[in-house]
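Board notes (copied after class):
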Amino acid sequence: MDPRIAPKKRPEKPVRVETAFDAVAARMESDPAKAEVMTHFANLVADGFAEWQVLDNGTIRLRLTTGATYLLEQTTVTRIA
């Protein structure tokens, strides 16, 4: 991400990255490439550039601070906003 246009960090907001990441990582153990991508997403969340939520059906909703929202499913990534 270009640092000139990257959103500023928001350290005042509590982040529960580890709990969500552990739940996600457990599902990705069989695919190292997918696990690496999810690690990068977790870093975005940890740095305050995104938020994620595990939905009831196991889908992960990733919302970037730019407003883009993605659904991360087992085999697809769908941009919904």
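Comment from the instructor: The mean pLDDT is 78. The radius of gyration is 13 Å.
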